[in-house]
Structures are given as structure tokens and as C-alpha cells.
Amino acid sequence: MNDTHAPLLELRNLTTMFPTRRGEVRAVEAVNLTLRKGQILGLVGESGCGKSTVLLSILGLIAKPGRVDKGQVLLEGRDITHLSGGEMRRIRGREIAMIFQDPLSTLNPAFHVGEQIRESLRLHHMMLGPPWPLDRAKKAREKKRVIEVMQEVGIPAPEARYKAYPHQFSGGMQQRALIAIGLACQPKVLLADEPTTALDVTIQAQIVALMRRINQEHHTAIILVTHDLGLAAEFCDHIAVMYAGRIVEIGPTDQVIEEPRHPYTAGLLRCIPHVGERRAIEPIPGNVPDLADLPPGCAFSLRCDSARPVCNEGFFRLQPASADAVKRGEGGHWARCLRLTDYQMPALED
Amino acid sequence: MRLVKVIERLLAAIPIMLGVAVIVFVFMRMTPGDPVDIMMGQGGTVSEGEVERLRSEFNLDKPIHVQLGLFLSDLARGDLGNSFTKQQPVASLIGERLPATIELAFGSLFIGLLIAFPIGILSAVKQNSLLDRLSMGAAFLGISMPSFWLGIILILIFSVKLHWLPVQGRIDYDAGLQTVTGLYMLDSILTGNGPALISSLKHLILPSIALGSAVAAIVARVLRSSLLEILRSDYVKLARAKGAGETTVVMKHAVRNALIPTVTVVGLQVGVLLGGNMIVETVFSWPGLGRLVVEAIFNRDFPLVQGAVMVYAFIFVAANLVVDVLYTYLNPKIEM
Ligand SMILES: Nc1ncnc2c1ncn2[C@@H]1O[C@H](COP(=O)(O)OP(=O)(O)O)[C@@H](O)[C@H]1O
Ligand SMILES: [Mg+2]
User: Alpha-carbon distance B262 to B225, whole Å?
Assistant: First the structure.
């Protein structure tokens, strides 16, 4: 039964693991996320903390021997975690599309860009009409739609560029082409895995503007994965901060940015350079811990300057971080830190 | 555009062929053993005068640079000269034998690719499976096993023991095939001669397996390893994220790109097949160019060796050219 009030996409207790030589690695552990129609959610964290794994788990694309071990992915209230291959394929690209970090390596070097966009339409039979032998007409409809999408994502002269190969595009154009592939079937959810990381700053801004326009015009919900909290702050309605496979802080963007309640979020904020400000950026000391060898208790305790011995004992739940925190999973501001009650964030100014 | 480049490359092959011919010309004359002595040794007692007469007929009594000049001026007129031992034009001798070699090369290539593609693809898709391990083990055997040895084993099993396939030759004597191109299977089809087609196919199978198994092994390994890399690539991930099924992902997105390195290797193998199968031709009494050349070398039949070597050089250049042309179709980043 589809619940009409259900959120568009919901992750419940999602846990994904990879068996490795050094034991099982839980790249994603007990992640709960809610995405509503038209919403933009930022998933932020240093590299290696499990962001891409969350996105691939949603699409059921975790490479074997890795697997989604526990939890569920619900699309409009329907559990899609254990669908058959064919059923899952109907969702990929049609309901939930994904765009990747490195556009050049993500486009197939051997095919025309236009054909790669058209393939999305063909895989999902988007331009059905009278059946064979009129499939010439179908191809024409598909091409028309491809040109339309290319235009929409801002590829100039799309007719001429239909038959271009990926290497003939600039980085920004390649990313636009990837977005066009994602948008071709008008998905409800767009998963964007560091879509601007490989691009120049000016191009980054263009791509972000494009995604915002898509979000506004089609009400496409977006999960933006990024290691750049500044970008997420600017672009997203909600932000979830991940560390070592877990969500350590989640909430509406302004609350998370203005009142970070987890020391890791605060640390990430201190890493953002501000134009015109003299304040030195302070890197977080140390590195992301080895997921196969996590400390007991809080995984961030090793790098936390206000850690206490109790931080390595027991298990910490997400706790309400502000007075108006509402029911779990339904918004509000939450953080996973032992000192949430007595902890005072150091002021950013000094 | 492509055509112009192809013609340019073919013209560029001419100096290569000439260079090879000159080198062979010089080396043949520097190796011990005199063609006339060898011929006379076979012919029994002969007079001094007869020997002198043959020497001058073959121009062997002239200084080497004069001989070379004569050879090159003949060549410029398109004349490869006459064979010493067979008293026939080199061009027609080669023309008689080349189709047999070509037919065997393509038979081997066909069998090689027929085995290599399914095995290469399946063992990449099911990496580390039993099938993968078995076929890579077999590929290792296929590469290290000498083809003549495999040929002998095949003859012992399928001809001597089972009597399924003929031991030697290209076709049964009573097939009554009219040659058109010299490629017997093609000629059988062209002349509508069913029994000849079956007979020539039967003769072709064993030597093709003997030669083709190494091709299969080499190509399967290249295909597998490039597919393994490609299957981990971002564009394969994207294909899956678009909703493509595994068959489309592998056969369209991955294999298409894996063909690029594979074609290079196949092209090299075609050169090897056309040039280096004297031993298998001998095992199967296959009347190809390889056996002709070996015989010519033993007889110090200079013009025949020179002509054959030029043909080999041309084959290698042409095989490389075909690879390069295919490349431009397979890899859009490359132009000729
Ligand atoms: N295919 C895999 N096999 C084994 N471990 C993996 C695999 N993919 C990801 N991981 C583990 O999951 C962790 C998180 O990876 P990833 O989701 O790519 O992080 P992010 O996208 O945040 O940089 C990695 O540090 C790695 O340990
Ligand atoms: Mg990532």
C-alpha cells in the first residue's frame, strides 16, 4: 500500500557493509534520512565517510561482495530494498537518477553524447507511441526530447552537439550532459554525488544554479553529496553531516550552520574559508579513522579537542539539539554527542 | 579523409618492402651454401660447363652490387624474377600458395575469436568463478603449448583414431573444385559445389584449431583483463544507474570499449598467422606459403625467398593498417 502522506524517499536504519580482508567494514551504519518532494538535502562529510555508499545503497548498486545489511529504503512509502533486478531497474534512472563526480570518466567515451542521453529514454520506454514498424517515428520523438533536455541543461547548439563525443566537451559541458542523462526521464529524486568537485569554481557556480533551477521548475528532490559544507549551506534546505558511516548531526540548514551541536560539524565550519575575512582556517586534526578499526564509543573522539574518557564508552544516539526538535525523522535539529546538554561550542570569532 | 590516409600509408609500405627485400638479398648471399651446388647435388654428375652456364643464367657470376642493381631494376618493372629451382616466375609461385595460407589464417582467426569472445567475456563477468579459473588455466596452456604439437595430437585423435577428419591437404582429390580465388571454401560457394565445400571445410578444421588455439588464448586474456578494468569504471556505473540490465551494460557499454585493446592484439595475431605457420603447414601438409619459403631457404632459392619476404612485409603493414583504420572507428579520440 502506498501511503500518500509518506515522504518521497526515506531511509530507515540503513546499514551497508563490505567484507574486507580485515573484517567487515560498515561503510554506512544505521542511517535515517527523510526527503520530501522538492526538498534539497545536503549530505556532508570528509571523503571516506560513506556518502557515496549511501547513494549507491539507495539505488541497489552496492558492488558485491558488499551488501545492504539492515534497514530499508522506501520510495513513496514502498520498500524498494529487496526488489528483483528488473523491478529495481525500472526505478533507476526513471524514479531516482544519479549524477557522478567526474563527468569525463562517467560518460562512455565510445558513444555520442546525444545517444547516451537517448539511452535513458529508451531504457524506460519513455517515448512510446505506435509500435514497430513505426519506430523511426519513435526515434525522432526520442531525439526531439534529447535536444529539449540538452537545451534545458544549458548545452548550446544541441542539434550540432548531439553527435559530439564526450572528450569533445569541456568539463562543465560534460557535467551538463550528465545532468541531462539524469533528467531525461524526469525523475522524482536526483542523487548528486559531488557534482561540482571536479570543476572550476566558476563552472561550479553554474552547475549549482542549474540544479537549483531544476529543483524549482520540476520540484525534483535532490540529495547533494559534498565534502563542502559551505556549498551545502548555500544550496540545501536540510543538512546531514556524516562521520565514519554514521549521521552525527542533522537539521535545517540555518540551525546546523548557526548552531552546530556536534564538534565535527563545528570543525568543518571552521575549515571554510570566507572571502574578505582574515580568520585563519583551522583544519580538523588527524584523519578519518579506519572503518575496520573504529574506537569504541564516539568515532570522532580521537580527533575531538573536547573529548572526555566517557566518550569512548557506550553508544550514542542522535539527541534533540534544540528545544523545538520534533519527532525523530520529521525534521528538527539532532546531534550525536554525549555533551549535548552541557556542551558549549567555542565561538567562531576567536 | 580516411581513404586518403589509407592510400598514403599503403604507399609508405613500398620503401619498407624494398628495404626488407634488400636486406634479405644481402643476407641470403652471405649465408654459406651455393644454390647451383645444391641443385647439382640433387641432379647427379654434371659438367663444369653446365655449372658455369647456370651461374651466368642466374647472374651469380656477377659482383653482388651488380646483382642487386639487376634485382632492383626488375622489381621496378614489377618483375620478381624466376625461381632458381622451379624455373617459374616467383610471382606465380607465390600466387599459387598464398590463398592456402590466407584460408588457413582466416580459419584459425575465426576459430580463435569464436572461442576467445565468449570465454573472455564470461570469465570477466564471473571473475574468480570456477569457469574463470578453468578457462584462464586453459588459456595459459594454449599460449605455452606449441601449435605443431597440438596439431599432432589432434591428428592422432580425430584422424587416426576416430577417422572423423582428414589427416592432410586442403581438399579431397575427387572433389572436382574449379578454382576461382584459390580460397577453396569461397570457390566452392562461388561455383555451387557442395561436396567440395564440405571437403575443404573438413580439411580446414584441424589445422585451424591447432593454430587458432593460441590466438584464442591470447585474445581471451586481453579481452578479460580489459573488461575487468572497464567493469569497474565510472561509465559502467552510470549505465547501471540509468537502469540498464547487465547484458546491455556488458555487451554494449563494456565490450565496445574493451574492443580497443583487443583489436590491436588481434591485428598482431593476423600478422603472425599469415607469416609464421611453416611448422603447422608442414604437420598438416598444407600447401601454403610457409612451406614454400622453408623449402626455398634450404635450396638457397634467392628470388623466391626475396619475393616471399616482401609479401610478408606487405602483410604486416596491411594488418597494422587495418588495425589503425578499425581503431578510428572504435576509439573516437583517435584520428588517423
Ligand atoms: N567496494 C568497496 N569495497 C570495500 N570497501 C568499500 C567499498 N566502497 C566503499 N568502501 C568503504 O566505505 C567507505 C566509504 O566510502 P564512500 O562511500 O565512497 O565514501 P565517500 O563517498 O564519503 O567518500 C570507504 O572508506 C571504504 O572503506
Ligand atoms: Mg564519494
Answer: 10
Q: How confident is the model at residue A34 (pLDDT cuts 50, 70, 90)?
A: very high
Domain that holds residue A182: 111-186
**Do A280 and A132 fall into the same domain?**
no
Shared-domain flag, residues A176 and A194: no
Instruction: Give B215→chain A minimum CA distance, Å.
Output: 26
Q: Locate cell 651455393: which residue?
A: B34
CATH of B90-330, one of 1.10.3720.10, 3.90.550.10, 3.40.50.720, 2.120.10.80: 1.10.3720.10
A21: its cell numbers? 580482508
Residue A337's contacts (CB-CB under 8 Å, 6 or more residues apart) are A248, A261, A262, A263, A298, A316, A319, A343
Which of the residues A83, A106, A121, A194 would you substitute to probe the B interface, choosing the one with the greatest number of B C-beta atoms within 10 Å? Answer: A106
* Amino acid of residue B7: I
Here the CATH number for the domain that contains residue A68 is 3.40.50.300
pLDDT in tens, B37-94: 777 776 566 677 878 888 888 888 888 888 888 888 888 888 888 888 888 999 999 9
Taking each helix axis as running N to C, give the angle between helix B2-30 and helix B64-76, from 0 to 180 degrees, rounded to the nearest 10: 150
User: Closest approach of chain B CAs to the CA of A317, in angstroms?
Assistant: 33
A66 CB near ligand 1 (under 6 Å):
yes
Helix axes B289-298, B90-125, angle to 10 degrees: 130
Of A86, A120, A165, the CB nearest to B242: A120
Q: Does residue A60 fall inside a structural domain?
A: yes
Q: Residue A109: which of B239, B240, B257 has the nearest Cβ? A: B257
**ipTM at complex level:** 0.88
| B331 inside 8 A of chain A by CB | yes
Q: Which residues pair with A23 in a beta bridge?
A: A20
Judge whether A121 is closer than 8 Å to chain B, CB to CB: no
Domain boundary among A156, A186, A216: A186
How far is residue B118's CA from residue A80's CA, in Å, rounded to a whole number? Answer: 34
Q: Cell match 593460441: residue?
A: B214
